[in-house]
Task: structure prediction
Amino acid sequence: MKQPTIHDVAERAGVSKSLVSLVMREPDRVSDASRQAVLEAAAELGYRPNAVARSLVQRRTRVIGVVLSDLHNPFFADVADGIEEAATVRGYRALLSSGFLDAKRERAAVEMMLELRVDGLIMLGSMMKVTKIEKVAASLPVTLLGRHTTSKVVDSVGVDDSAGARAAVDHLVALGHERIVHINAGKAAGAPRRQSGYKKAMRRHGLEDQIRSVKANFTERGGARAMTEILESGDLPTAVFAPNDFAALGAMEVIDSAGLDIPGDVSLVGYDNLGLAALPRIALTTIGQPRADLGRTAVRLVLERLDDDRKTGRHEVVPPKLVVRATTGPPRHNTRG
Amino acid sequence: MKQPTIHDVAERAGVSKSLVSLVMREPDRVSDASRQAVLEAAAELGYRPNAVARSLVQRRTRVIGVVLSDLHNPFFADVADGIEEAATVRGYRALLSSGFLDAKRERAAVEMMLELRVDGLIMLGSMMKVTKIEKVAASLPVTLLGRHTTSKVVDSVGVDDSAGARAAVDHLVALGHERIVHINAGKAAGAPRRQSGYKKAMRRHGLEDQIRSVKANFTERGGARAMTEILESGDLPTAVFAPNDFAALGAMEVIDSAGLDIPGDVSLVGYDNLGLAALPRIALTTIGQPRADLGRTAVRLVLERLDDDRKTGRHEVVPPKLVVRATTGPPRHNTRG
DNA sequence: AGATCCGGATGGAACGTTCCAATAGCTTTC
DNA sequence: GAAAGCTATTGGAACGTTCCATCCGGATCT
Result:
């Protein structure tokens, strides 16, 4: 179990520890003979540099911490892919920890990352208060992903949720819909902009008297409850725009079990383009986000502060994309015009 | 950006660094006055112990590394939950890294964990060769999850796949099925035992002449191809047992689009009980695995080697559970008896 | 009163690296 | 042939902790 150290290698190769260190870091700065000897000794002993010791003296770990609010959300997996890729290219490594959809556990995860002295932090769909996050940002660069701030010390990346909502509404209007209800997810990350984007788009189409927004959240259950509420109101719209795919799924279940047809009786649009939205039995029309891009951008933002020492806040927005599937179609009775 | 150290705290509190260290570790060993002073100074400076330095001197990090073969597999998210929970209880923390379904990238992830000097390693659905993993196990405790070994140096946890297959067959036979086809996933992790369990169960029910197994893999596409093959054979069974939920989903799509009814014309059983199997539109009967339990067990195995220094290999098996939903029912024409 | 004990606090070594100034041994230059 | 310059290598300090042996001052014992 005892790992060999740089001293063991030095002794076996008959050189100083400094030389071994140099071989590990810049092999072509040493003579062929020494390099050979050191490499050989290292291989024989199974030497592996101790990143803990290195981090201590260099006062940086070359690790970017990633705190996910929820490991179960497939959305984050793709984002993490992008993060990992971009980090590797720049000579950093990514380390993940989950907040398990609980602000307290998320804080514990962040605390761990700080004690571990990661060089930068990316928070996916964080549930923590911005003021708390700003405090964290006093000790390292922090980028918020999938959530907007205007903070000077915390950067953020996200999709243009307003544009996404607009795309959904435009699509429905183009099909002939007017009575389009939005299920909103309150103040959750990204939700407010989706809601305001919906309202703005409705107005732009001269449908402001049709604006109707029902409060829910980002879960299947929340979507189901909201849809039940809509059905029970007796005032059935021709289309429903959900705040994300999970909520759309919940709504779908309720519509199905009410004996209504999608999209015959009511069209349905989600948001996120999760993998399951593509399943033939689901075939949900939704708004896709360039997930890997988001991850890459987040890494770039962190490294700009770290290596190029940027001091100002940056807030990047990438455009979303409409993905049309089978849950949207023309309204049964076109009430238009 | 410069973090305060234990010295800064000591100076401000007017005590020695050793005392500060003691307050952080065992607060009730110091006098009330000193404790108060130190805690106050620490809070004022925003002191946070440097885990890197601590790890260096203690020669252990209290971190359990978790390498996931695939972040996208929802199966792993639950397992990770169990790992995280069990680790926290025992005073360890879990750190994740993804192998992105690629043996090379997985090795890089493992290498990183080793350099970081994590205390133990849990590998979920690893794609690396066992001999490679055994080499890794020379420097720290390694537990393989969702994959079996008989290794003396590497532990493993998994579900009893044979029992799971038996449960599936028993359920179908109880409903009156006899012509039950198995789609198998070849040699992929867990697949051989599911196949042999199926065969054994069929024999036990006196149905050995009905044994029929079609080769595929663990993906949706693979399941679809196998199901197409079954349909084209012209010899339609009354029930299909897929190697996992993804493959079942593929089969489901093919059956749906052939205009056949599930379970009216053919019953379908999956394996894994993914979250999406519970969606009402899917409602897949499947075999559930106690995922969080698997995670907890893996942690226990690692810590047994670490803290109780066990030296022998352990290979734990936990029982799976049948989850009946809407894709199974009695066969249309009961050919029994 | 001197020896003993005890709780509380301290200073220095150690952990395994990197980094930097210094050195040794050559070659080149004037 | 001494000075200067180069290349390859080295030793020691530093990073921020923990751990251990030691110390200090007061109480308790004989």
